[in-house]
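Predict structure. Input: DnaB domain protein helicase domain protein, 763 residues.
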Amino acid sequence: MIAQLKTQDDEYQYMANLEAEELILGGILFDPHAIGKVANLLKPEHFYAQGHATIYELALELHRKGSKTDLMLMQEALESKKVLEKIGGQNRLLQLIERTASAANIKGYAGILITHYERRRLRDLAHEFLEEVKDRQNNPFQLQQDLITKITALNHLTPGESETKFLYEQIKQILQCADLTETEIQIKLEELRKKERIGSWEWRKEYLEPIKKELGDIEEKDSIEEETDKILSAQEMSLVLRQILPECLATPVLKLAGWLNLKPECYLTALLCGVSGLHFPKTKLIINEALDFSVTPNLYGGIVAPSSQKKSPLIKAMIVKPLRELQNRAREVYNRELEEYQQLINKYERMKKNDKENLLEEFPDGEPKKPHPKIYYFTNATSEAIINQFDKHPEQSLLYLKDELAGVFSGMNAYRGGKGSDEQDFLSQYDGAGEVRLRKSSESGVVDLECVPLSIFGGIQPKVLHNLLGNGEDDNGKWARFIFVQQPLTASVMSEDGGAIDLNPLLVELYEQIAGFPVMTYRLSRDAFRAYCKAYNEYEQRKISIHTSTPMRHVWGKAEGLVGKLALNLHCIEYAMKGEVPPESIGAHTINSAIALANFYAAQIESIYGGLGESLPSNLAKVIELCKRNNSEAITARDVYHSLSTSIKKSVSCEEIRGWFARLAEMGKGIIEGVGKGLKFKIPAHNDHNNHNDHKPINSSPEPKEPPENQNVGNVGNVGNVVELKPVKQPKFEIGDEVSWTTKKGAMERGIIKGFSQEKPYI
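Output follows.
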C-alpha cells in the first residue's frame, strides 16, 4: 500500500539522485581527465535517467579509444550516433557544464549512484519475489532457497558495485581531505570503522593498507603525467621574436630559422650571448642600490640538440662570422701598433746604449710596452690565459665560444693535474667578480682586476649534457647559470633559389656599435622596477616551495639576476639598431621581455632535468616526439625501440613500450590502434598542435598581431608567459625585394635587400 502511495518524485529521491548524475556528467565534460577516475567504477546502467546513461556510455567509449571527452568531441560523437537531440541537444550539454564548478568529488558522486542503483535492483527483486509469494502453487521453503540464490547472484553480478565499494570511497575522501590534520583524519577513520562494525585487524589489512597503496599509485601516476607535460611543454614553448627584438633584426632571423627549420629561440640565444661579450667590463645594471644588487651583462648559454642538427651553421652565422670580421679589424690595428712598437723599441735600445742622457726625456715612461692583440672570442684557453687576456685588455669583455660545449668542462684543470680551481673561476666570472692574483711572471707580481665578465656559448648533445648533469643536484649552481634552448630533431629544406639571407653586414654593424658603447651604469625606470619586483617575489616563492626540486631552487635563485642581464643586453640591442647610445634608464617593455625570456629558459632547464636518468616521463616524451616526426602517423613499439639510445635498449622491451602507449592514451596524449604485438600509437589531428602545413618550421613563433596603443602587460611572473609588447613599426620593404635609389651624386643604382637597419636597407 505504501509503495502505491509513493509519487514519482519520491522514487527519484529514494531510488535515484539526478543531481549527482548531472554533476558526474558535467565533471566529465568540464575536465576530460575526470572520466579516468570513474571509468572502472561506474557503468551506464548505474544512471537512472536514460539520457544520462547515453551520454556516459559515449564518454566511456571515447575514453577507451584514448580520445578526450570535451564538449566538442562529445557533441560530435552524439551526432554521429544520431542521439544528440534525444538527450536534449547541445543546450543540454552546456547546462551540464554550467552546473559544474569542479570534478574533484566525482568519485563520491559515483558512490551515490551505485548505492541508488543497488536499491533499485533490490526493489525489483522484492517485487519479483512478492509476485511469486502470491502464487499459491509455489512452495514457501523453495521460495526461501530461490531468494537466497538470487540475492547471492545479485552480489556476484555486481562485485565492484557493493556497499564495500562505497565504503572504499568514503575512506579515500577522508584520507585525501586537505582540510583535516593527521590526528583528525585518524579520528574520522576510527569513527567510520566503529560505525561499520569492522575489526581493527580487518580494517587495517582489508581497507586502509590497500587504499593507501592505491592512492600512492595514483599520486605517482599524476606525478609522471605532470613531469611528461613539463617536458612536452618546454619542447613546444615559443616566444614571439618580433616582440623581443627590433623588427629589422627579427625578420631576417625568422626567415633563416624557417629555412633551416630551427627554433628562432636558438638564434636569439646565440645573439644574446654574442652581444653579452662585447660590453666594457665595468658596464652594469643596478637593480637595487640599497641592497647593492647589480648585474653585469655577460651570459652563459647553449643549444641542446642532437648531432647534425645544424648547431655549427647557426653559431657560425650568428657569432663566428661577424666577430671574425671585428677580430680581423682588430688584428690590423694590432699589426700597426706592433710595427710602431718595433720602431720605438729599436730607438729605445739604441739610446739606452749610446745616448742615456736624453733617454729619459725621449721615453719618460720607460721602455715602450709591447702591444697585445685584442680578441672578441676564443675557442680554447686555460683559466690563467683568460685572466692574462683580461689583464692585457682590461677595457674588454670576452666570449668563450665552443662548438661542442662539453669541451669547456672536460678541459678544466687539464694543465694543473686536476688540482686547479677552473670551475670555481667560471662560477665567479659569471657574476663579473674581480680577481686579485699573485703571479711571478707579472711585472708587479700582482694581477688586480676589478671585474672579469666572461661569456660562454656553444652547442651540446642531450645525452652528453645528461652525463655532465650527473645526479641532477647541481650542488654549486653551475648549470643554473646557463640559458639553454632545446632543439628537437627536424628536417630542413633546401630551396632552389638558394634562400640567400646574409645576416653578416647587419650583425657586424650591431656588434661594432655595442663594442663601441662607453662604460655605462644602467638603472630601471619606476615602471620597470615595479614589474621586476613582481617577478622577483614570485621567483623567491618558487625557490622555497616544497614542490620545487633542488636544482630548480638554484635556477629560480639565479633567475633574479638573469632578468637583469637579459634586460641590459636587449636594451643595448634596441638602441644599437637605431645607431644611438642607450639611455641610462631601462624601460618596462624591456624588463617584461627579459622576464618572459628568463621564464622560457627556466622551463627549458626544468624539462632537461625531467629527462635525466632515462626516466619514464622522458621516455613518454620521446614517443610523442617520434610520433610528431612521423607526421602524427601511427607508430609501433619497434619504431620506438629503434629510435632509443643503446643504453635504454638494454633495459626496455617492446612489450614495455606498448605499456608506454597505454599510459599516453590514458593521459589523453593520443590513441591506441590494434591489439597485442600489432598495437600502435598515434596522435589524432585535433591533438597535434604542432602539425603546421604552411611551410613554417614546426617550432616557429607565430606571427603576432599588432596590439593597441598603450596595451598593458600582465602576468609577467608566470613561467612561459609571452609578453605582449608593441612592435617596432615595420619597414615598407621586405628582404629579397629588388629596389632602386639615387646616390648623392645623382646616379641611379639597383640591388636586392638582404637586411635592415633603422635608417636604410642593406643591399
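The domain at 241-499+506-609 is CATH 3.40.50 (Rossmann fold).
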